[in-house]
Design brief:
eight-stranded mixed beta sheet; 854 residues; binds arginine; binds zinc ion
Length: 854
């Protein structure tokens, strides 16, 4: 069945209060629910309570047990005809957490019992109107064996607890804030707590707890710091204060995605909580900080103001991603954070937007909502908020978010509500801007700068086009905010950054006072999520790569310089590589620059990004060209790489931005040094691997070695495995590094690793480490034999029976067949068809695979 946005209808029945009673047990948990329900408006429709895999043991209305003829099951939904305006409805069900391999609803993970309800997992716990516009006050009582489950946590504040005969105990929690059921959570288990406190801006004390297995306590410090920094940041930047007396976070090993913002009880994939220098890279540390912040920020953007229906998902996700990006930028470097975020957007969202699964930020329809937790909803959604913030300016944007939070507090809102608050608070008209929520596809902007020396006038002609996407053949012109600057090549300066609003298909802008032709810096700061094509020469790009004062534009100029060389090479043209090498040398030796920025800038664009620049992706040609350029850069600047590598070796580990930047630069220097083919390359990499006192350097050395055959490669992989075989999160890196390597045998290696005793389909992190990484390895995944497609399709088929949500995430790489040559495309389609032919296929995978073939 297809669910459509325009079919939205308010709920027939409201549930102002719910009391839940759990008798917890890994194989048989009893759930007793008492719902106070109220008819919403005048209608004579029965009460419908969604259930997924539930059988009612008992149904009561106003204290009376109903006979089997007084209710019905329609699919999984419990249907109860009712006469009055309000009733008390009770149900009892039994669920089996330890056989819940989908990890939705109540499930077992490493001896713990925990929940995941977003988007539609609550219906796997109890019968309920499982939709985000039904908000209820929750009281939760839990009872369990005290030795197995000494800690009992739920949303809100703890109110009472006690011991029971037979080694059992109980606890009651209440959450005073009405919330949709997707924010419900409970956790039971043997957990240790990193306890801390935070005093809010109005002086209230909040008890903070990060709950993990005892042995993991030493790895929770960074998450706790991130939590306190986030709480202070949301007060300072958005005026948002925390609202309960406790805030708990629990880390679990088996989790379908990053983390979940359940009210007062966030549940996390342990990879976004646990970090220490021995096992976490700097990227992992940043991931912890960013995800802790993201989930915390949801308390306002998501929980206090929630979504009316799932078509509005980007209302909370886009805004919250924008908020966590801004936070991380404030905690570290704005320039580097922007570069990283754009790289992610291009790698994940642009690909989605140009393929069969393209959808608007506010989708029109879906089969399975889990498939819509996408880069478009999250990352493009964040770009929409960023564009509005740019157009309004910070102060008016902040006034508008205040207005938004005040006028929708306690409500289930829509994207339209948000845009309207921006209009009212910001005093601008966003009618055309709304198209960003409606139209899928990445806009292309062609920018042609011309110059008339006679009049000293420069003219910038901008043309935009939004490509057709499934269900949207014709597009209207969008409102695109373009930050530009025109550089005078003689002075190396510009006369100010301007914000141009491109609102028509074709529009030109004039600039006076240029005796000689200026150089165009465009989409500065990546002001709009578009693809820009310009008529700039390699010389212009080299100039910008050395002089642009906008760090993103400077990075972009360098990347474009590299892209042009590589695409030229692939097309058999001779493009001057020396300009690239010179630009890299100048950047790498500029003492004014932040080493982290240098490291980002001198890195070659990924193979996938190069593929995106070609009409038909040729994975082998891309790999060969990129590899060759890498080697040339390595050789031509070999002494520099040796210098940087030696000069960035730290005496003691630190997480300061300077230390992190030095490690990033050190790793890229090592990479070029090894790429140069220098005789001692593998030894230097192995020495770094061996001597490193942190995972950032150790893993980078391992990854560099993993690209080619050498004794050092085998030795490093062995040592790594034996050292971390009992640490799941770190062992994931061992799988991931091999699956992501540019090794000629990667396909076979992945096939072998699938049979490794430490590989399991039951743990989503492990699956992503092997198959997620492999599917992102363009050269290997698209091996001309088609073996890569077979491996991934096999994995999807096997995993679908265990965890369809995670299986569905592996489908999109196969769906990109239109971008490849006919031979590959046919094999990719065949793989998708084989998946679709599987009997009993989940709705999740069916939707992704069938849309991919359309
Ligand atoms: N809301 C969670 C987060 O911040 C993610 C929930 C994902 N749910 C899903 N079914 N994929 O970001
Ligand atoms: Zn989120």
């Amino acid at each position: 069945a297809i669910i459509r946005r325009l079919d939205y209808r308010p709920p027939d029945w409201l549930v102002p209060d719910i009391a839940l009673d759990f008798d917890l047990d890994a194989s048989a948990t009893q759930v007793h629910a008492v719902l106070s329900i109220v008819r919403n408006g005048t209608h004579d429709r029965p009460l419908r309570l969604e259930g997924d895999g539930l059988l009612p043991v008992e149904v009561k209305v106003d204290g009376r047990t109903l006979g089997p003829e007084e209710w019905a099951l329609d699919g999984g939904t419990l249907v109860v005809p009712l006469n009055g305006q309000s009733h008390q409805v009770e149900t009892r069900v039994e669920v089996a957490p330890d056989s819940n391999s989908k990890l939705m609803g109540l499930y077992a993970s490493g001896g713990l019992l925990c929940t995941q309800c977003e988007a539609e997992g609550f219906r796997r716990i109890t019968f309920f109107p499982d939709r985000p516009d039904v908000l209820s006050r929750y009281t939760v009582r839990m009872e369990a064996d005290k030795s197995r489950y000494p800690v009992l946590l739920a949303n809100g504040d703890p109110v009472e607890k006690g011991d029971l005969p037979g080694g059992r105990h109980w606890a009651r929690w209440t959450d005073p804030f009405p919330k949709p059921c997707y924010l419900f959570a409970l956790v039971a288990g043997d957990l240790a707590c990193n306890a801390d406190r935070f005093v809010t801006m109005s002086g209230r004390e909040v008890a903070l707890g990060i709950w993990v297995r005892e042995a993991d306590l030493p790895r929770t410090a960074h998450a706790m710091k991130a939590l306190k920094d986030s709480m202070a940041w949301d007060e300072r930047v958005y005026g948002r204060e925390y609202d309960l007396d406790v805030f708990n976070i629990v880390a679990v090993a088996d989790f379908n995605f990053g983390a979940m913002e359940n009210k007062g009880l966030n549940i996390f994939n342990s990879r976004y909580i646990l970090a220490d220098p021995e096992t976490a890279t700097d990227l992992d540390y940043d991931g912890v900080e960013g995800v802790v912040a993201h989930e915390y920020f949801h308390n306002w953007s998501g929980n206090r103001v929630t979504c009316r229906d799932w078509f509005q998902l980007s209302l909370k996700e886009g805004f919250t991603v924008f908020r966590d990006q801004s936070f991380s930028a404030d905690m570290g470097s704005h320039a580097v954070k922007r570069i990283e975020d754009v790289r992610i957007l291009r790698a994940a969202q642009f690909q989605e937007d140009s393929g069969p699964l393209a959808h608007p930020v506010r989708p029109e329809s879906y089969m399975e909502i889990s498939n819509f937790y996408t880069a478009t909803i999250y990352n493009k959604g964040a770009e929409l908020i960023r564009m509005m913030a740019l157009m309004l300016g910070w102060e008016r944007f902040r006034a508008s978010t205040d207005l938004y939070f005040e006028s929708h507090d306690g409500q289930a809102a829509t994207c339209e509500d948000f845009v309207r608050a921006m209009e009212e608070g910001g005093g601008i008209d966003l009618s055309q801007f709304r198209l960003w929520y409606e139209q899928a596809g990445t806009p292309h902007v062609r920018a042609m700068l011309s110059h008339d020396p006679a009049t000293g006038t420069a003219e910038l002609l901008l043309e935009q086009a939004v490509p057709p996407t499934p269900g949207q053949p014709d597009k209207k012109p969008m409102a695109i905010p373009m930050r530009v600057a025109l550089f005078d090549p003689a002075s190396g300066r510009h006369q100010g950054d301007q914000l141009l609003m491109l609102t028509q298909a074709k529009q030109s802008f004039r600039f006076e006072g240029f005796s000689s032709a200026p150089i165009l810096s465009i989409n500065r700061g990546f002001s709009a999520p578009v693809i820009v094509e310009t008529n700039r020469s390699q010389a212009d790009l080299a100039f910008l790569s050395a002089h642009d004062d906008d760090p993103f534009a400077r990075y972009e100029a360098m990347q474009q310089l590299m892209v042009n060389v590589l695409i030229g090479r692939i097309g058999g043209q001779a493009v001057d590589e020396d300009a690239v090498i010179a630009a890299i040398r100048d950047t790498a030796t500029d003492p004014q620059l932040d080493p982290a920025f240098v490291a980002e800038t001198i890195r070659l664009p990924s193979e996938a990004y190069l593929g995106d620049q070609m009409p038909v992706v040729d994975p082998d040609a891309i790999h060969a060209a990129r590899d060759a350029l890498q080697q040339r850069i390595g050789e031509a600047l070999e002494p520099l790489w040796r210098d940087i590598h030696a000069g960035t070796k730290a005496n003691a580990f630190s997480l300061s931005p300077a230390a992190k930047g030095a490690r990033k630069l050190r790793n890229i220097a090592l990479h070029y040094l090894v790429a140069s083919g220098a005789q001692d390359g593998p030894q230097i990499a192995f020495a770094q691997f061996h001597e490193a006192d942190n995972m950032t350097e150790r893993q980078a050395a391992l990854a560099t070695l993993a690209n080619g055959a050498s004794d050092e490669r085998e030795a490093a992989l062995d040592i790594f495995y034996n050292r971390y075989r009992d640490d799941a999160l770190t062992l994931d890196k061992w799988f991931q590094t091999q699956a992501f390597a540019f090794h000629p045998n990667t396909v076979q290696l992945v096939a072998d690793l699938r049979e490794h005793k430490d590989f399991t389909l039951a743990n989503p992190n492990r699956v992503r480490s092997l198959f997620g990484a492999f599917a992102g390895n363009q050269w290997a995944f698209h091996h001309r034999s088609g073996e890569g497609y077979r491996l991934v399709a096999d994995c999807i088929i096997a995993l679908d029976k265990i965890n369809p949500q995670t299986a569905a995430r592996l489908v999109p790489p196969l769906g990109r067949w239109r971008r490849f040559d006919e031979a590959r495309a046919a094999m990719m389609r065949a793989a998708l068809q084989r998946v679709l032919a599987e009997p009993g296929l989940s709705r999740d995978v069916t939707e992704q695979a069938s849309k991919s073939l359309e």
